[in-house]
Amino acid sequence: SRIGVVLVAAGRGERLGAGKPKAFVELGGRTLVEHCLRTVTSLPSGGHLVIVVPEHLAGETLRLVAAAEPTGANWEVSVTPGGRERHESVKFGVDALPEYADVVLVHDAARPLTPAALFARVTAEVRRTTDAVIPALPVVDTLKRVGADSIVHETVDRAPLVAVQTPQGFPRELLAAAHDRLGTGAHDAADHPTDDAEVVQRAGGTVRTVPGESLAHKLTTPGDLALLEALLAAQNG
Ligand code: CTP
Ligand code: MG
């Protein structure tokens, strides 16, 4: 059955420092939003994709959508303005989805090379378990706990630790109820959830993992742009 996808693209991209919001930066001649748009609308389930963007870029986003090659006819695409914090942008996106979307995937536009197979893997596990499902990769570096004085306190056991990605998938009701519970009011800056699985966990939901993908790498700093360009070039052989 048809799914809902919330593509969050309303951040400012301050750490990248490209002079414009990160989702509108180009990688291999296409904006990050366009990369994600093409991947999502290639998914055979069909459904509704809502792209959450800075308000002043809503018109430009609609033009990008209109200019995209015709894809699966079973996809509808809409554009909606985001909020100050990521979790607010997600809530606005979920609220904009049509009723029929019983499974919702939330995806960062900042992960432009995420393969369609990962969207399918997450969706299948949500349907199988009716729990929240997130992609996770083992942590490979040695981890240390460091004090404010830059002195190492200890090495942290990495065996139980994973790095998590998007798309994160949820039964729609579970995600909507968890975000309603959190609300969009002022929160302590340190208390902002940085992903949706955290929002669901705070509401008491169970979160499961599936294997992630190195291609789902997030664009955060200028160094990531070089890495993603290389990954894209390698893909295009
Ligand atoms: N995001 C959003 N609305 C916000 C903040 C973030 O839709 N108010 C989105 C971003 O567009 C991005 C994803 O959430 O696709 C992950 O956030 P992050 O990597 O932090 O992106 P930015 O907030 O844009 O970057 P920065 O924190 O460096 O400003
Ligand atoms: Mg941010």
UniProtKB/TrEMBL annotation:
NCBIfam families: ispD. Belongs to the IspD/TarI cytidylyltransferase family. IspD subfamily. SUPFAM superfamilies: Nucleotide-diphospho-sugar transferases. HAMAP family: IspD. Catalyzes the formation of 4-diphosphocytidyl-2-C-methyl-D-erythritol from CTP and 2-C-methyl-D-erythritol 4-phosphate (MEP). This is 2-C-methyl-D-erythritol 4-phosphate cytidylyltransferase. It is an enzyme of class 2 (transferase). The keyword Transmembrane helix does not apply. It comes from the Bacteria. It comes from Leucobacter aridicollis. Its EC number is 2.7.7.60. It catalyses: 2-C-methyl-D-erythritol 4-phosphate + CTP + H(+) = 4-CDP-2-C-methyl-D-erythritol + diphosphate. InterPro entries: IspD, IspD/TarI, IspD/TarI_cytidylyltransf_bact, ISPD_synthase_CS, Nucleotide-diphossugar_trans. Gene3D superfamilies: Spore Coat Polysaccharide Biosynthesis Protein SpsA, Chain A (3.90.550.10). Keywords: Isoprene biosynthesis, Nucleotidyltransferase, Transferase. The lineage of its organism: Bacteria, Bacillati, Actinomycetota, Actinomycetes, Micrococcales. The record marks R15, K22 as: Transition state stabilizer. The keyword Transferase applies. The record marks R158, K218 as: Positions MEP for the nucleophilic attack. The gene is ispD. One of its GO terms (molecular function) is 2-C-methyl-D-erythritol 4-phosphate cytidylyltransferase activity. One of its GO terms (biological process) is isopentenyl diphosphate biosynthetic process, methylerythritol 4-phosphate pathway. Pathway: Isoprenoid biosynthesis; isopentenyl diphosphate biosynthesis via DXP pathway; isopentenyl diphosphate from 1-deoxy-D-xylulose 5-phosphate: step 2/6.
